[in-house]
Every structure is written in structure tokens, then in C-alpha cells.
Amino acid sequence: MADLRVKIGGLDLKNPVMTASGTFGYGLEFADFINLEDLGGIIVKGTTLNPREGNPYPRMAETASGMLNCVGLQNKGVDYFCKNIYPQIKDINTNMIVNVSGSCPEDYAECAARIDELEHIPAIELNISCPNVKQGGMAFGVTPEGAASVVKAVREAYHKTLIVKLSPNVTDIVSIAKSVVDAGADSLSLINTLMGMAIDIEKQRPVLSIATGGLSGPAVKPVALRMVWQVAKAVNVPIIGLGGIMNATDAIEFLLAGATAIQIGTANFIDPTITVKVAQGINEYLDKHGYSSVNEIIGALKD
Ligand SMILES: Cc1cc2nc3c(=O)[nH]c(=O)nc-3n(C[C@H](O)[C@H](O)[C@H](O)COP(=O)(O)O)c2cc1C
Predict the structure, then answer these.
(1) Is any atom of ligand 1 closer than 6 Å to the C-beta of 238?
(2) Could you tell me if residue 228 is left (phi over 0), alpha (psi between -120 and 50 degrees) or otherwise beta?
(3) Among 192, 194, 254, 275, which residue has the most ligand 1 atoms within 8 Å of its CB, making it the best to mutate?
(4) SS in 3 state form for 219-281?
């Protein structure tokens, strides 16, 4: 068996397989299907300073090779998380990471500061795809300045490993990645969902309640892979790749492109055991090709 361990900032991962925020609940929902401790890490649901109801239904739509969602960060807020969820997940022996969202830098920083106090949460992942309420609702993550403003505010308030999750809805992902690293990110994860839309031709209305939503699943993989490859060459922090990973082959593509770890999202809805199968598949690939450690294939793509 090859050595599957990797490092992301201050985190030691047993293997490079993590779960993507919003697709794996708090982990507990999947405990009947897999041993959660077999995963490299679990990124739990998006958490905000104040409770959020999310968007009206319908908020999911199936598309060719993917799905659209506009769940809208439904959650009960950080205090509820600290009081009610944290005690249930704190003893799971893997990296339990909280995905943090907000609508202004101060909200992000305050939420991060509360999570900083939780001993068994070694990292947060910042979702910068959220609309900036103070600047007309444009997502923070679509400009280098907007992205850096959130990361700077959080970096001052948060002292453990800071992962920043990039939005793919941009023209130049590399400039945003660089500004986020300059602002203090320890690691980047990419990609979040791509903005999309579906229409019901009988009703002649959008399928989703707020018309647009985020596209995920196999349809986005080539875009995600291209962005991981570009960003991995441009920055010196570990990259976590995600977007459309359905099997070990997909995961290995991301590792070769330069990702140190990967996350699995939409595929969990199809097969709740997919994460452990992907970890096993990575191991089989390493054995078959005579590698002793997964680190040997990270960024090993030939020209
Ligand atoms: C239902 C659903 C909810 C999601 N919620 C969040 C979230 O709260 N925070 C976040 O950063 N990303 C969220 N995402 C995005 C995923 O974490 C992931 O970036 C995206 O789905 C691409 O990966 P995939 O193709 O493997 O699903 C969500 C995705 C889905 C499908």
C-alpha cells in the first residue's frame, strides 16, 4: 500500500480525499455508509454569522451531466453550530473543517473568530462566492480586490489553517488566486459552482426560484481541471481541486494537474460511499505504477 498522506498548511491528511461543502452535511449524515475517519477531511455545510433561511423552492434542477442548485446557504448560524453541532463532530478523527460565508468582511471575520475558539476544528474554508451586500451584491470572489478584502479581514481574526475557495465565474482566475495568497491564505480550493440556468418550456419560467443557480457535477470538470492547473503553476500554497470528480480517475487527473488534495461533492448524492472508493482507487493507481507516495504524482503532469 502506497503512502497516501499529504499536508495542507498545518493539516496532516491521511489521504487526499475530502468532501465538498454543502454536499455532505456535517458528515454525520453519511456515518451509516462509510467510516468517516477513513477520509482526509470533511468540509461541513456553509456557516454564516447569523441564521439564513436559504432561497425559496425549487432550488435544485438536474441538467445534462450535472445539477443546478440555489440553496442559498441555509444554516442556523455560527452560534448554533458551536453549541449544537460541534459537540457531535468534535471527536471524529479526521480534519473537520468549517466552510464560512458572509455578506461583508466583518461578518466573515466575526464568524471565523468564533470558530477559531473550537479546539477540534483545525481549519476553515472561506466561500468567497457570496454577494457583497455593501458593494451592490457582486460576489467578493470575482475581483482580486474584493477577494483580498475578505481574506485580510479573516486572516487577522483567524489563526489556524485558512483555505480560500475560489469562484470560477471570473475571467482571470490566476490574478484572484495570487491576491488571495498575498492576503494570507494558506491554501486554495477550487472550484465552486459555475453560474447557470434552466428553463421549463411549458411554464415558460426558470426552473429555479431565483432563476439562476450553481452548476456542479461532471459537466464542470474540464473547467475545474484547467483552473487548478493554471493556479497550481502560479502560487506556492497547496491547492485542493474539485469540480465534477466522480471516480478515482478524475481525482488522479486533478493530482497530476497540481492539486495536493481533492474534494468530492455532487458524486456523494449518487453514491454515498464514493469518497472511500476514490481513496482506494488512488492507492491502486499508485501501486500499479510503482509509486510509494501520492506526493510523487502531485503536479507530475508532463508537457
Ligand atoms: C447542494 C449544494 C450545496 C452547496 N453548498 C455550498 C456551500 O455551502 N459552500 C460552498 O463553498 N460550496 C457549496 N457548494 C459547492 C460545492 O462544495 C462544490 O464546490 C461544487 O459543487 C463543485 O464540486 P462537485 O462538482 O464535485 O459537486 C454546494 C454545492 C451543491 C451541489
Answers:
(1) no
(2) alpha
(3) 192
(4) HHHHHHHHHHHHHHHHCCCCEEECCCCCCHHHHHHHHHHCCCEEEECCHHHHCCCHHHHHHHH
Instruction: Tell me how far apart the alpha carbons of residues 57 and 59 are, in angstroms, rounded to a whole number.
Output: 5
104 is catalytic: no
CA distance 92 to 3: 22
Q: Which of 18-27, 88-97, 132-141, 231-240 has the lowest mean pLDDT?
A: 132-141
Question: Which of 164, 216, 246 is the best mutation target for the ligand 1 pocket, counting ligand atoms within 8 Å of the beta carbon and taking the most?
Answer: 216
120-163-227 Cα angle (round to 5): 145
Instruction: Establish whether residue 19 lines the binding site of ligand 1, counting it when its CB lies within 6 angstroms of any ligand atom.
Output: no
pTM over 0.90, yes/no: yes
Q: Is the pLDDT assigned to residue 136 strictly greater than 90?
A: no
